Write a sequence for this structure.
């Protein structure tokens, strides 16, 4: 199935949001990191400037900087309008208003756009998508998946979630996913089944409360540690 930029609503979160969403310590940030479904977030940009090692994957990276920027401009107003209509689903604390959210997100996306051509050239942005990645086994210490798995539970099947998490566990020692809610600020319909299946496969599962909540009730992340504790099978 072909991937069309017209189907995508690019929406990037900031470095500071990533740190809070995934409860990232200084030690975490010093590891080899895979960012999955990062889109136009500024995490890769800012971490690289701090001397970190990160690769981001997203199918959107098959497009040029100008194409992505144009799509951001086309969809930005719609996202703000939808957020305003559903404002009751969000916690307006660290971000105080829809307008402030728009500024924070656009700053993050501008950071991404300024870095994207160089990052694409150096291999920090890779056009791939779950559930199949091209990386070596245990190529990364830590894989982060923001606002994709679980959030789109209505659109992505249980099997897709399981395949994706097993694949992330193949390429990284530890996997963290945030949030555990689906759209509409409801608990993901797949979460309990995913946890059961991963535990049956021998993975170590933790649900961690984090210091970030924008969707109401969305302050928990999933951490999965490999069944073999990082040693090859």
């Amino acid at each position: 199935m072909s991937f069309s930029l017209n189907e995508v609503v690019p929406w990037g979160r900031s470095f500071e949001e990533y740190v809070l969403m995934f409860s990232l310590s200084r030690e975490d940030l010093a590891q080899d990191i895979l960012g999955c479904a990062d889109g136009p977030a500024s995490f890769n940009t800012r971490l690289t400037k701090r001397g970190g090692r990160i690769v981001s994957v997203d199918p959107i990276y098959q497009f040029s900087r100008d194409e992505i920027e144009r799509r951001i401009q086309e969809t930005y107003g719609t996202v703000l309008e939808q957020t305003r209509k559903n404002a009751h689903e969000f916690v307006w604390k660290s971000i105080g208003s829809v307008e402030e959210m728009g500024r924070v997100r656009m700053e993050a996306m501008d950071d991404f756009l300024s870095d994207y051509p160089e990052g694409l050239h150096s291999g920090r942005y890779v056009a791939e998508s779950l559930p199949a990645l091209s990386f070596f086994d245990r190529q990364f210490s830590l894989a982060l998946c923001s606002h994709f798995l679980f959030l789109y539970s209505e659109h992505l099947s249980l099997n897709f979630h399981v395949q994706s998490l097993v694949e992330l566990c193949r390429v990284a020692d530890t996997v963290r996913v945030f949030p555990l809610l689906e759209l509409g600020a409801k608990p993901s319909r797949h979460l309990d089944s995913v946890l059961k299946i991963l535990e049956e496969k021998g993975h170590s599962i933790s649900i961690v409360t984090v210091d970030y909540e924008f969707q109401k009730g969305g302050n928990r992340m999933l951490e999965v540690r490999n069944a073999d504790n990082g040693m090859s099978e």
Q: What stands out?
A: The chain has seven helices and nine strands. Helices lie at 15-21, 26-29, 43-49, 65-85, 98-122, 158-171, 191-200. The chain has a mean pLDDT of 93.
